[in-house]
Design a protein that fits this description.
With 211 residues, this protein is of the alpha/beta class. The strands form two sheets. The chain has a seven-stranded mixed β-sheet with strand order 3-2-1-4-7-9-8, with helices on both faces. A two-stranded antiparallel ribbon has the order 5-6. The radius of gyration is 17 Å and the shape is globular. It has one domain: Vaccinia Virus protein VP39 (Rossmann fold, 3-Layer(aba) Sandwich). The protein has six helices and nine strands, in the order αβαβαβαββββααββ.
């Protein structure tokens, strides 16, 4: 059972522990599902000197107000389109994606993972941050059948309604290896817990990879 802890406190402690243990260059950050910048973005933005934020909706003014960063650029466009045409590399790539499907073709972070490989630092380390759901809410709901099918196919399972943290760690280490990325550090933090009264449990995955 996960401990009852606020998301803000947990993320700040989580990142503080990581930065005290690891030597990572904090220069450039890609916020690929930026939204209004009032969730994960603001916890990490102050650590980086350059930020590219991407969202299909124009939250530029709200985003910049929330993160209060002088070198944040907000790109109003489809995130996969941005990544496919991007010629930059980043020290941190934040994928705070919705826990569902969008556009009918992709779901969660599944359709974007392979696309970010060219954006990781060549010969160096890149931090990847993304969500996983242990027990997805409304997994069997009629409206979620497309998401369910995409999710099951990505993880190679017939049923992903109840997952374990260890499954995710093993899966992603192997998955990143197939993409040419070596995982040098893997940690997880429970963003929300069933003990805290939430309907689902969502883990924050912080993975450091080298290409």
């Amino acid at each position: 059972m996960q401990n009852k802890i606020s998301e803000k406190e947990g993320i700040e402690n989580f990142f503080a522990n990581i930065t005290s243990e690891l030597s990572i260059q904090y220069v450039s950050m890609l916020d690929a599902f930026a939204k209004e910048g009032n969730w994960l973005s603001k916890h990490f933005a102050s650590k980086f000197s350059q930020i590219d934020a991407v969202d299909i909706c124009d939250y530029a003014d709200t985003y910049k107000k929330n993160i209060e960063h002088p070198n944040a650029k907000f790109h109003v466009m489809n995130n996969i389109e941005y990544i496919s045409n991007c010629n930059k590399t980043y020290d941190l790539i934040l994928l705070d994606s919705p826990m569902g499907d969008f556009g009918g073709q992709s779901a969660e972070h599944f359709g974007i993972m392979e696309q970010i490989v060219p954006l990781t630092q060549p010969g160096g380390s890149t931090i990847l941050i993304f969500n996983t759901s242990l027990e997805p809410y409304d997994y069997d709901a009629k409206k979620n059948q497309n998401w369910k099918a995409i999710r099951n196919k990505f993880y190679g399972k017939n049923d992903t309604s109840k997952m374990s943290s260890q499954f995710y760690i093993t899966f992603y280490i192997n998955y990143f290896r197939t993409l040419g990325l070596t995982v040098t550090h893997y940690d997880m933090f429970a963003r929300r817990s069933t003990q805290a009264g939430d309907k689902t449990s969502i883990d924050l995955n912080l993975v450091i990879v080298k290409k």
